[in-house]
Amino acid sequence: MTGTRAFRVAATGARLVTGVVVAAACVVGVATAIHAPWPTVRHEPAQVDVTPLPGDSVLVCNGDLRALGRDAAAPLEMRAAGTPSLTAGGTSGPPAAMQLAAPDLGQDSGPQVLTGAVEERSAPLIAGAESIAVAADDLAGYAALPCGVPRLDSWLVGGSVATGAQDIVTLTNAAEVPATVTLTIYGATRSTTTTVVPARTQIGLPLSAVAAGEEAPVVKVAAVGAPVRAVLQSSLVRVLDPAGVDLQDAVAGAQQNLVFTGVQAFAADGDDAEMTVLRLLSPGAGTTATVRVQREGSSSTVDEFTVPLDADVPAQVSLSGLEPGRYTVEVDAEAPVVAAIREQDGFGLDSDFAWATPAPEIQDEVVFAVPSGPAPRLQIANTSDQDATVTLEPLDGGEPQEVSIAAGETRGVEVEARTTYRMRTTGAVHAAVTLTAPGRLAVLPVQASPGVERSITVYP
């Protein structure tokens, strides 16, 4: 073999070896790439947490108690039956007050609107509560009610149009424009009534005029144009004796879990089936509600049962058999429901009753007012699985106090009448103020304070 030919063979062999190596490397590279994570292109959405600028804190009070039928020639005509005393306060001092009109009572002045003005981009926490005791031939008892936030949608769970009941729905519009309000009555039959509430005005409607024939109605209040404050005034006359009066706040909407604290059971002479009664409604869908009753100071359940609910049909069940004392009642339902509990301390003359609405969950700082009334007491329920400590501080500079509530328990603490408190808690709790004496009952759930703004996440 010549030298030139030998060189050509060697060069060709080198190229073949190099090709094989490169091909093998490509195969290994492709195999590795298949199993290795591929680079991805991801775009995280832009987002920012924003705390809205607060507006003025506004609460609407209910004003004068109303009486029906004092003029025999006009049985549906209303008259003022007494002006309640008002307790109000706030973290920046007493809120400003302005009166609205109540033309159907023949008065130029009506309920008050409380306003806490924004200062340096911060809204003060404010609270107010009214109370009144009456002793007339047609109206007797004690009633108390916190001043509340007007809403576009709310529910009144209570009242009756049975013989002796003289219940009134009051609608208060604190806005500068009229509100068109539709009342939808849920009962054995369903009906609607629409009315207009003028700007800065309160009107009253006899429940018997909008819910005729319904002994256990539930009323949905839907407003267009401006939010309204809806309140149910209930009173009862048995034979010829007045047997109590109450003011009941509307609830914001249906929920699957409701907690009632501040519920009281009283001794009864004979059948106690009407002493403590729970009314429920499942709007839009049938469901089953589980009711658990727990005594204050104990984590054990003293009563538990289920209530089947047909869609849009109110149900009423007795919480009979409870020993006299203070209780927390929890309602868990498979679908959202609205509910309220009616308690009474007797029958006939010198007795009284009160409707208790659900106490919302409190996690933030709140301010609440304790009105003038007998033996005021704050009952605090901790339905969570974590212990909580609640601090109560009078806004007038009194000595603060701490209350420890074990997980799953309820505790009560005495508070002062005509005093506004700041309440802080280390965990989620439910609370209500009770005022109790023979022939005088009221239950005021502690509400979240207006003016508290939470951060929201904004996605541009």
Structural features, described:
This protein has 460 residues and is mainly beta. The protein has one domain. The chain contains two helices and 33 strands. Strands 18, 19, 20, 21, 22, 23 and 24 form a seven-stranded antiparallel beta sheet that branches. A hairpin with an 8-residue loop joins strand 23 and strand 24. The longest helix has 33 residues, at 3-35. It is globular. The N and C termini lie far apart (80 Å). Mean pLDDT is 88; it is low at 1-14, 30-36 and 453-459.
Helix and strand composition category: mainly beta
Beta-strand content estimate: over 45%
DSSP helical segment count? 2
Give start-end ranges of low-pLDDT stretches. Answer: 1-14, 30-36, 453-459
Write down the overall geometry. Answer: globular
Query: How many strands, what sense, and barrel or not for the largest sheet?
Result: 7 strands, antiparallel
**What's the alpha carbon Rg, rounded to whole Å?**
32 Å
- Tell me how many strands there are: 33
Mean pLDDT: 88
Protein name: Large extracellular alpha-helical protein
Organism: Microbacterium algeriense
Topology:
Elements (H helix, E strand, L loop, with lengths): L2 H33 L12 E3 L6 E4 L4 E4 L9 E5 L2 E6 L5 E4 L12 E5 L9 E10 L4 E7 L6 E5 L10 E6 L5 E8 L4 E7 L3 E6 H4 L7 E7 L4 E10 L2 E9 L5 E11 L10 E6 L5 E9 L5 E9 L5 E4 L6 E20 L8 E4 L9 E5 L6 E5 L6 E7 L6 E5 L4 E5 L4 E7 L4 E8 L2 E6 L10 E3 L2
Antiparallel strand pairs: 1-33, 2-7, 3-4, 5-8, 6-7, 8-9, 10-15, 11-14, 11-16, 12-13, 12-15, 16-17, 18-23, 19-22, 19-23, 20-21, 20-23, 23-24, 25-30, 26-29, 26-31, 27-28, 27-30, 31-32
